Amino acid sequence: MENETGGAGTGIMDAVIAGDLPSMGDELSIIALFWQADPVVKLVMILLILASVWTWAIIFEKSMRFRRMRRLASRFEEAFWSGGSLEDLYERIGQYPADPMSSVFSAAMREWDRSAGRVGSAAGLQQRIERVMQLTMNREVDKLERYLPFLASVGSAAPFVGLFGTVWGIMNSFSSIAATNQTSLAVVAPGIAEALFATALGLVAAIPATIAYNKLSADLGRYAGKLESFAGEFGAIISRQLDDRS
User: Fold this and answer.
1) With contact defined as beta carbons under 8 Å apart, do 158 and 1 qualify?
2) Residue among 201, 210, 196 nearest 151 (CA)
3) What's the confidence (pLDDT) of residue 66?
4) Most buried by CB count within 10 Å: which residue of 2, 9, 50, 170?
5) How far, CA to CA in Å, does 152 sit from each of 93, 147, 214?
6) CB burial readout 152-178, b (16+ within 10 A) else e
7) Spatial distance between the Cα atoms of 191 and 27, rounded to a whole number of angstroms
């Protein structure tokens, strides 16, 4: 009896070594796990992969844009504080420049030019200029803030979406065990692996999104503070010029 059992076991091992039986490593590869997954788990994986790709696209776009905005702001501040004429600077950068700080300056100068020669109080003109600068700042910050809520949503929701796929996959694994009345590793492992793969995809999408959201939000806050400081300083310059003119 022992010889027959040993012979059967030896035959199975020989078949595995010879390649006559399927390899569990092939069944547990990433591509195989995706194609063998339940349709619900497969849909969860696709959503998480798309969220991850879109997250990285936003990260690269925002990082490059913030770097460009900081470079243009430094260049504008250098020209602004160089002591030259504000009218000449306004003509050089145009009415609708690309960077937010120049846009705040141009909006204020447009309102200044529109009020030139009109009879009115200096306080009223200063209030209009300050209001225009504030509206321009809000509009520019809203543009820079675009898509950041998506990063926050992915960072908070992706792990739970992956967990849903994991729970669904484990349920399917238990259903397979009950249907086949087998608890061998070959029956259980693929379902558990595809379930855990959904959780892994959720973390892959959530971790970069959370880190990027915190970093980009901090950069946006610093840049918005820089715009506020410039608007305050420029408002003080306008106030002095209005006092000299009156």
Assistant:
1) no
2) 210
3) 93
4) 170
5) 35, 9, 9
6) eebbeebbebbbbbbebbbebbeeeee
7) 10
Q: What pLDDT, in 10s, does the model give residues 5-42?
A: 444 444 434 433 344 434 444 455 666 666 666 788 88
State the virtual CA torsion across 164, 168, 173, 177 in degrees, nearest 10.
130
Q: Tokens 């040993």 sit at which residue? A: 6
Cα–chain center distance at 59 = 5
The region of weakest confidence among 83-87, 144-148, 149-153 is 83-87
Check: CB of residue 172 under 8 Å from CB of residue 191.
Answer: yes
CA angle 15, 16, 21 (to 5 degrees): 85
Closest alpha carbon to 186 in 30, 23, 15, 17: 23
Question: Which token pair is 129?
Answer: 């200029």
Q: Which two tokens stand for residue 95?
A: 């009415």
pLDDT at 194: 75
Least confident of 30-39, 61-70, 130-139: 30-39
User: CB-based contacts of 98: which residues, under 8 Å, 6+ apart?
Assistant: 72
Contact 45, 197 (CB under 8 A): yes
- The tokens for 121 are 């109080």
User: What's the chain's length in residues?
Assistant: 246
Q: What is the 8-class DSSP label of residue 50? A: H
- Pick 2 or 63 by higher pLDDT: 63
Identity of the residue numbered 150: F
Average pLDDT over residues 173-191: 68
